[in-house]
């Protein structure tokens, strides 16, 4: 009876609205149109730069030419179909909109504009949560650790990424509220399963999802765990189609309303175009931090320096963040100045880290880009301690 009523109602339909149509195939659209004899207009909405129809379970030979492609791609390419582009994003914090726009859209000659003011996206920035950079709702957590593979599904997980995510969620509960709206998004199903079990054991009601299963959805806060790392058990390789899939990256990075926490191996992530552009742009506003940042969250003792950055900030973290600008400045001027806040870290340790990182990143000693660095001045900013572990002058 109910099916008959629905069928009769559809027979009188004159306007069809197909939302999130990027994930709908052209065959689905054709099937609907054939069933609606009074149809006059069709409104299709979708983002061609996000995930399309899920075809991974089908042979590659069936992916094209059988009507299984996204209807959005088909319709946008037709000269007979009128289309317009929506450029205003009302979901994300304006800074997130700006960064995602650069990462995913501007490389195609398009862009996004924020439709929501910063004042309406302050859940994270106005909380007591110790962000690496004040008022920047992004945490880039660089965790280089060992990943492993499930023997049945061959999917991946990373135990240290799991631990880092649990620590981040715990900190969000402590600094904001146990009732805060957050979701953990995983690139790999095995990582998702491991995190779900971990949260269940802790008695926490945390939503853990895959990227593919969370398109068209949103959350106040997003913890995005990427799993891949340079260390591995067995021959798992260092790159992934998931990282090179720009559409998947765009979906993953654009779900957060108030704040985004990205957990991953930064150098591995840079193998993907969107990930690399996102990291480049985000690094203009905040620092890439390491596992030491989790210790800061647990300690609860957080201060900021005159630049608004969290202090103490480990030298390894800050040097990684500054390396790109250091190289470019040295090429331009033949010298550079690096400012860093390292709290009570021994000055000799800082110098050791700096020289070691230069050699590791460039393979050169004393020479970068064919130009010798004439002067390298290291300013230590922060509280000066006394004794053998104290900071000496620069």
Explain what this protein looks like in three dimensions.
- This is DNA2/NAM7 helicase-like C-terminal domain-containing protein.
- InterPro entries: Coronavir_polyprotein_1ab, DNA2/NAM7-like_C, P-loop_NTPase, SF1_C_Upf1.
- GO terms for molecular function: 5'-3' DNA helicase activity; ATP binding; hydrolase activity.
- Residues 69-266 form the DNA2/NAM7 helicase-like C-terminal domain.
- This protein has 394 residues and is of the alpha/beta class.
- The protein folds into three domains: 2-84, no CATH class; 89-311, Rossmann fold; 316-381, no CATH class.
- Helix content is 35%, strand content 19%.
- It is built from 13 helices and 19 strands.
- α12 crosses α13 (347-362).
- The longest helix has 19 residues, at 315-333.
- The chain is globular.
Which descriptors apply to this entry?
394 residues; alpha/beta; 3 domains; 6-stranded parallel sheet; 3-stranded mixed sheet; 35% helix; disordered C terminus
Q: Give the termini distance in whole angstroms.
A: 83 Å
Q: What general form does the structure show?
A: globular
Number of domains: 3
- Neighbour order of strands in the largest sheet: 9-8-10-12-5-13
User: How many strand segments?
Assistant: 19
What is the average of the pLDDT values?
77
Percent helix, as a range, is 25-40%
Briefly note the CATH topology name of the largest domain.
Rossmann fold
Structure class: alpha/beta
């Amino acid at each position: 009876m109910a099916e008959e009523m629905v069928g009769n109602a559809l027979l009188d339909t004159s306007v069809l609205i197909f939302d999130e149509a990027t994930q709908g195939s052209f065959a689905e659209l054709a099937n609907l149109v054939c069933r609606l004899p009074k149809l006059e207009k069709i409104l299709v909405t979708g983002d061609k730069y996000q995930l399309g129809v899920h075809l991974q379970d089908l042979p590659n030979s069936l992916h094209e030419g059988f009507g299984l492609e996204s209807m959005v791609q088909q319709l946008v390419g037709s000269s007979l179909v009128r289309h317009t582009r929506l450029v205003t994003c009302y979901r994300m914090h304006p800074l997130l909109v700006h960064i995602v726009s650069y990462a995913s859209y501007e490389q195609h000659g398009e862009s996004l504009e924020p439709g929501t003011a910063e004042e309406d996206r302050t859940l994270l920035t106005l909380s007591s949560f110790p962000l690496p950079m004040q008022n920047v709702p992004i945490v880039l957590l660089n965790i280089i650790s060992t990943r492993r593979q499930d023997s049945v599904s061959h999917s991946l997980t990373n135990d240290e990424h799991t631990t880092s995510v649990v620590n981040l969620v715990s900190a969000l509960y402590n600094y904001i509220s146990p009732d805060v709206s957050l979701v953990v998004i995983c690139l790999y199903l095995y990582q998702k399963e491991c995190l779900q079990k971990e949260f269940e054991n802790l008695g926490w009601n945390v939503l853990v999802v895959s990227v593919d299963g969370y398109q068209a959805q949103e959350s106040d806060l997003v913890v995005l765990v990427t799993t891949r790392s340079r260390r591995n058990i067995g021959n798992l390789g260092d790159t992934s189609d998931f990282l090179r899939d720009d559409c998947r990256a765009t979906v993953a990075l654009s779900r957060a309303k108030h704040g985004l926490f990205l957990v991953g191996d930064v150098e591995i992530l840079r193998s993907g175009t969107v990930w690399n552009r996102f990291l480049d742009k985000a690094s203009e506003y905040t620092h890439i931090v390491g596992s030491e940042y989790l210790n800061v969250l647990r300690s609860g003792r957080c201060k900021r320096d005159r630049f608004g950055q969290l202090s103490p900030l480990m030298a390894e973290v800050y040097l990684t963040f500054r390396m790109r600008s250091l190289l470019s400045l040295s090429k331009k001027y033949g010298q550079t100045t690096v400012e860093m806040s390292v709290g009570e870290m021994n000055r000799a340790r800082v110098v050791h880290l700096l020289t070691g990182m230069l050699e590791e990143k460039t393979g050169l000693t004393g020479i970068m880009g064919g130009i010798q660095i004439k002067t390298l001045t290291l300013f230590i900013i922060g509280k000066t301690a006394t004794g053998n572990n104290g900071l000496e002058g620069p």
